[in-house]
Amino acid sequence: MDLRHLRYFVAVAEERHFGRAAERLHMAQPPLSQAIRQLESELGVVLLLRTTRRVDLTEAGAAYLARARSILAEMDEAAHEARRVAAGVVGRLAIGCVGSATYSLLPALSRHLATELPGVDFAFRGEMLAPDQVEALRSGVIDVALLRPPVADLSLTVTPLRSDRLVVALPVDHVLARRRQVRVADLRDADLIVHSADRRSVMYDVVIGLFRDAGIDPRVRHEVGETSTLVTLVAGGLGVAVVPEPVTALALDGVAYRPLVRSAASVELAVAYRSERGEPHLMRTIDVIRRMF
């Protein structure tokens, strides 16, 4: 079916006149009349009763007009939707966040995305370790990851966003909590709470590396999977933890945060997605995230 003929028919049916319909469609009257006759021939029914002064709908024409309007409206909506998809303003995306970003970044990010891309349906998964995020990107469980490098997977595009310095989370009654800053050497005899080595946490490697670079054998007492659990254990007096500074956004009673004194003691935060993907709404989301830093 030629959609142009549908539009021609609707114009004639609504104007009840070929001349006015031709003007509305910005075309000559003879081609318009010919197109309507071709449509009637294809359907095998008479849609319009013509006189020299006006045009009336047959009963079949009236029924056809209602359906034609519906079809054209759906086609217009489909075209509008296609343009919105091409512009990257509609779609669905899942974003995975490393623990520290869950508390410090996710609230502001969700507001920015809601403002700039209101037609995109976002889902968020917090407290994800970097290896879990990489696997979730590969499998399509998430579309975007806010994670801690390094990332060895060459199928991913990874863009650094910022560098977060490290701080020490201490029970408020810990002797070191009285200090304005803490050195790694001050933690020589402290019970450490760290992210899980079994789950290949980036922060586990960073923290253990800090201690070993200082010539200290770390006393790891607890390994956890979530940053919130880690800070909760600190609040409970079960040990101390070295964490990225954004974790301080997770303010719990019983926890004091102190800067860690060490040159270049920091970790990167990066945004990652599968390099093969380039959907407009995905790329616009990546752009919003990059512009926040």
UniProtKB/TrEMBL annotation:
Organism: Nocardioides panacihumi
Residue stretches making up the HTH lysR-type domain: 1-58
Keyword NADP set for record: no
Keywords, in A-Z order: DNA-binding, Transcription, Transcription regulation
Residue spans crossing the bilayer: none
Source organism superkingdom: Bacteria
Record carries keyword Transcription regulation: yes
InterPro entries xrefs: LysR_HTH_N (IPR000847), LysR_subst-bd (IPR005119), WH-like_DNA-bd_sf (IPR036388), WH_DNA-bd_sf (IPR036390)
Name of the featured protein: LysR substrate-binding domain-containing protein
Annotated PANTHER family: HCA OPERON TRANSCRIPTIONAL ACTIVATOR HCAR, TRANSCRIPTIONAL DUAL REGULATOR HCAR-RELATED
Pfam name, any one: HTH_1
Protein family per UniProt: Belongs to the LysR transcriptional regulatory family.
